[in-house]
Amino acid sequence: MSTARPKFITFDCYGTLIDFQMGPAARRVYSSRLTPEVMDGFYESFRGYRLDEILGAWKPFDEVVHNAVERSCKAWNVTFDPADAQRIYDEIPSWIPHPDVPAGLAKVAKEIPLVVLSNSMTDLIPYSMAKLGAPFHAAYTAQEAQAYKPLQRAFEYMFDMLGCGPADVMHCSSSLRYDLMTAYDMKIGQRVFVNRGHEPGIDFYGYREIKSIEQLPGLLGL
Question: Is 12 helix (H, G, I), strand (E, B) or coil?
Answer without folding.
Answer: coil
